[in-house]
């Protein structure tokens, strides 16, 4: 089987990379939005005040506000109340009273809620369920929210995260600052319109990619030598095929979310000193040795984009294929319940 | 479950981290540039601390960057930023009155 050699671009990355990027992009989570009953204006239609959304994991709460507002105005509020709506005073809380951050991707908010529930001693085994959000219409706790609810502030935070990821990977932000303004805006537009092609048209310029040489599919016996041929010696390959490759980054942008915090961030090299690829399993035993010890069953599990990723997944691959739209691989750690430990 | 909760307790770092503030452009230089900041502090707290040291009010424009490269999220902790971006044992925080790399 000959591996096709193409110029680097989003559309010529190995099919599996594009597949996982699309799966990540298309991931959604169920949300139930309900206005705090104490704040529902008089004359509101109380039977209908719940709004359900299947929200993209890569989107943000401020981007859902227009849709929620339209619903409330059409269905729930009467004219007098509708005139008084001030979106800039809106804020969201989980059912448990946990303040939701405007600049966190929705998928992260959902997974973080899942792991918080896992650590609650009195909660029963949970099935995937809509995340119930309480929408408040006034008195936002601005000190704790850290950010105003405007889409502009959210966009700035998003750009900041992309730059931080760029800097972590390469020690500079040249790839981000090298984008034209229209291209940078195109990333955010892709999120707003939820358009995979629009987002990746620009993201492919700044996101490390896996290359055909790094594909882990087993070679047919006739080309067993393919693995031993170094990339630079391959006549058909591009000059420096791995220059922007996922395995060449200084560090993969990764954050660990623990139930009730803290959020942990550290350098995540793609390869370790002994020439071994940095896998999720090694990453977890290194950073959370008490939860993931190599000589016993783990006390916790790790979710990336809501999925229990196999422990042998390589951090470099996760950075190229399952990062969020802001460039970050968010690893959410949930506790395994006592009763489930026995059966592992 | 208890063992897991005990494990979780150990992951909150408390030791202070060295931060170096560097003025950009026409921003005033502080008398003292190096500070030890509690590792668990959010970056938002660092910004507020900087405002107080400079004697600036909440409305005065203040832009902060790490290594002249990016603006962290306000809830990024000093500990995490230090681990990822420290040079020579300290985290460089640039401050400016105008948006430079935003």
UniProtKB/TrEMBL annotation, chain A:
It is a peripheral membrane protein. One of its GO terms (molecular function) is Atg8-family ligase activity. Residues 25-136 form the Autophagy protein ATG5 UblA domain. It is found in: Preautophagosomal structure membrane. Pfam families: ATG5_HBR, ATG5_UblA, ATG5_UblB. Keywords: Autophagy, Isopeptide bond, Membrane, Transport, Ubl conjugation. InterPro entries: Atg5, ATG5_HBR, Atg5_HR, ATG5_UblA, Atg5_UblA_dom_sf, ATG5_UblB. Residues 252-333 form the Autophagy protein ATG5 UblB domain. Gene3D superfamilies: 3.10.20.620, Autophagy protein Apg5, helix rich domain, Phosphatidylinositol 3-kinase Catalytic Subunit, Chain A, domain 1. Residues 152-209 form the Autophagy protein ATG5 alpha-helical bundle region domain. Conjugated with ATG12. PANTHER family: AUTOPHAGY PROTEIN 5. Involved in cytoplasm to vacuole transport (Cvt) and autophagic vesicle formation. Belongs to the ATG5 family. This is Autophagy protein 5.
TrEMBL record, chain B:
GO terms for cellular component: Atg12-Atg5-Atg16 complex; autophagosome membrane; phagophore assembly site membrane. SUPFAM superfamilies: Ubiquitin-like (SSF54236). Pfam families: APG12. The keyword Protein transport applies. Its main location: membrane. It is a peripheral membrane protein. One of its GO terms (molecular function) is Atg8-family ligase activity. Keywords: Autophagy, Isopeptide bond, Membrane, Protein transport, Transport, Ubl conjugation pathway. Signal peptide: none annotated. GO terms for biological process: autophagosome assembly; autophagosome maturation; autophagy of mitochondrion; glycophagy; piecemeal microautophagy of the nucleus; protein transport. InterPro entries: Atg12, Ubiquitin-like_domsf. It is found in: Preautophagosomal structure membrane. Belongs to the ATG12 family. Forms a conjugate with ATG5. Ubiquitin-like protein involved in cytoplasm to vacuole transport (Cvt), autophagy vesicles formation, mitophagy, and nucleophagy. Conjugation with ATG5 through a ubiquitin-like conjugating system involving also ATG7 as an E1-like activating enzyme and ATG10 as an E2-like conjugating enzyme, is essential for its function. The ATG12-ATG5 conjugate functions as an E3-like enzyme which is required for lipidation of ATG8 and ATG8 association to the vesicle membranes. This is Ubiquitin-like protein ATG12. It comes from Fibroporia radiculosa. The lineage of its organism: Eukaryota, Fungi, Dikarya, Basidiomycota, Agaricomycotina.
């Amino acid at each position: 089987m000959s591996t096709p050699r193409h110029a680097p671009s989003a559309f010529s990355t190995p099919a599996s990379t594009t597949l996982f990027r699309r799966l990540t992009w298309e991931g959604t989570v169920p949300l139930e939005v309900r206005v705090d009953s104490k704040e529902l204006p008089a004359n509101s239609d109380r039977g209908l005040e719940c709004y359900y959304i299947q929200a993209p994991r890569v989107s943000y709460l401020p981007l859902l506000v227009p849709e929620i507002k339209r619903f409330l105005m059409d269905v729930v509020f009467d004219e007098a109340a509708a005139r008084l709506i001030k979106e800039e005073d809106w804020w969201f809380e989980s059912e448990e009273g946990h303040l939701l951050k405007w600049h966190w991707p929705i998928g992260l908010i959902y997974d973080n809620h899942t792991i918080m529930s896992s650590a609650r001693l009195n909660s029963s085994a949970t099935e995937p369920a809509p995340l119930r959000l309480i929408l408040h219409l006034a008195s936002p706790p601005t000190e704790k929210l850290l950010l105003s609810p405007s889409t502009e502030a959210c966009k700035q935070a998003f750009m900041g995260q992309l730059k931080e990821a760029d800097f972590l990977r390469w020690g500079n932000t040249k790839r981000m600052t090298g984008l034209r303004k229209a291209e940078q805006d195109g990333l955010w537009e892709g999120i707003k319109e939820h358009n995979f092609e629009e987002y990746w048209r620009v993201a492919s310029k700044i996101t490390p990619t896996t290359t055909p040489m790094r594909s882990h599919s087993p070679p047919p016996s006739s080309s067993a030598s393919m693995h031993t041929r170094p990339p630079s010696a391959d006549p058909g390959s591009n000059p420096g095929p791995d220059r922007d490759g996922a395995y060449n980054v200084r560090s993969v942008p990764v954050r660990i979310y623990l139930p009730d915090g803290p959020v942990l961030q550290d350098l995540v090299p793609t390869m370790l000193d002994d020439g071994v690829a940095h896998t999720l399993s090694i990453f977890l035993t290194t950073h959370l040795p008490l939860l993931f010890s190599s000589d016993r069953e783990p006390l916790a599990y790790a979710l990336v984009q809501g999925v229990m990723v196999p422990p042998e997944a390589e951090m470099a691959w996760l950075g190229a294929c399952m990062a969020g739209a802001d460039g970050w691989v968010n690893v959410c750690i949930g506790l395994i319940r006592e009763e489930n430990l026995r059966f592992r | 479950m208890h063992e897991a909760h005990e494990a979780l307790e150990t992951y909150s770092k408390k030791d202070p981290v060295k931060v170096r503030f560097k003025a950009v452009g026409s921003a005033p230089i502080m008398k003292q540039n190096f500070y030890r900041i509690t590792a668990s502090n959010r970056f938002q707290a660092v910004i507020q601390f900087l405002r107080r040291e400079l004697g600036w009010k909440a409305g005065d424009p203040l832009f902060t960057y790490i290594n002249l490269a990016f603006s962290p999220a306000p809830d990024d902790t000093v500990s995490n930023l230090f681990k990822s971006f420290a040079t020579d044992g300290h985290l460089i925080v640039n401050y400016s009155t105008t948006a430079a790399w935003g």
